[in-house]
Design goal:
316 residues, mainly alpha, 3-stranded mixed sheet, two-stranded antiparallel sheet, 5 strands, 74% helix
């Protein structure tokens, strides 16, 4: 039986706890999903920690590009650590309660981390633009100080801007029902439970999220337009291939990130089942943080060499 936590406030019954349904499937399938997500969680944590460690300790990786990759790994760790432990708890118990404060906190860290990741992807595209289109000035433009300043700005901005609609959401009244048919506290399923006017929250989300997505997207599109134009001007096919190879990993990560995000929040959801929505949500919160370090590891000779050197030092 579902347990509702309620309190009386100004003659209005207000919810203090929510119930996340998760995946309503058989026990055997829930155990399989639990084991599968647990394995993904640990592989993701280990993979991203490996990249952070390698970038910090290997001199060959002390470049702006790898510095931003390490920041992306930190963001991925925050995203998956914010989502997966609660999902595992839900799978074990076939649903679980979460306090309203914890629900808001979970979505806050998810929104902030995704904002940081979106901004980092835009900054990384600018880094590739300078490296390919203005290589002689690369070292004077992309200095350590310049990268550090922009990284601080990105992290502070990401964890500050989402507070605007998080605070407004926290002030809403939720008077029942208290059941969220989802795997984590996402903003849209949460707002559907509000019994007060959510117009202001929706307005703030659009006014904040559109620039958050649009600005980095514009930077990526513009910089890669110049990058492609510059690569096409390279006379030798070997030179063109080498120049493009430095961007391939980033382009792959950008494509996966935006496709999964757009599939959940932008593309029409009409005709989409609740189960499909849950799976799509897992794509950008669980599988994207897993795929990112794999892409940068398998398709990057410098990181592969750093791993080999680290293994060699451990053996010797």
């Amino acid at each position: 039986m579902l347990k509702e936590a309620l309190k009386i406030e100004n003659n209005l019954t207000v919810i203090t706890e929510l119930f996340l349904l998760g995946f309503q499937v058989s026990q055997g399938l829930r155990i399989f999903l639990f084991s599968f997500l647990l394995a993904i969680y640990w592989v993701t944590i280990c993979g991203n920690l490996l990249i952070i460690t390698l970038v910090s300790t290997s001199r060959n990786l002390h470049t702006p590009m790898y510095f931003f990759i390490s920041q992306l790994s930190i963001s991925d760790i925050l995203v998956i650590s914010d989502i997966v432990p609660k999902i595992l708890h839900i799978l074990l118990n076939n649903g679980a309660t979460i306090s309203f404060a914890d629900c808001i906190t979970q979505f806050y860290f998810l929104g902030a981390s995704e904002t940081v990741e979106c901004s980092l992807l835009g900054m990384m595209s600018y880094d590739r633009y300078v490296a390919i289109c203005n290589p002689l000035r690369y070292s004077t433009i992309m200095t350590s100080r310049y990268c550090a300043i922009w990284t601080v700005i990105i992290w502070v901005f990401g964890f500050s801007i989402v507070l605007i609609y998080i605070i407004t959401t926290a002030k809403l009244k939720f008077c029942g029902p208290n059941i969220i048919d989802h795997v984590f506290c996402d903003i849209l399923p949460l707002l559907e439970l509000a019994c007060s006017d959510t117009h202001m929250v929706h307005l703030e989300i659009y006014l904040i999220c559109i620039p958050i997505v649009l600005v980095p997207t514009t930077v990526i599109v513009v910089t890669y337009t110049y990058i492609v134009w510059e690569i096409l001007r390279i006379p030798s096919s070997t030179g063109r291939q080498k120049a493009f190879s430095t961007c391939s990993s980033h382009l792959t990560v950008v494509s996966i990130f935006y496709w999964t995000m757009f599939s959940v929040y932008i593309f029409p959801s009409k005709g989409r089942t609740i189960t499909t929505s849950k799976i799509l949500s897992l794509l950008y919160t669980v599988f994207t943080p897993l795929i990112n370090p794999i892409i940068y590891s398998l398709r990057n000779k410098d990181i592969i060499k750093a791993v080999q050197n680290a293994v060699y030092k451990c053996i010797v």
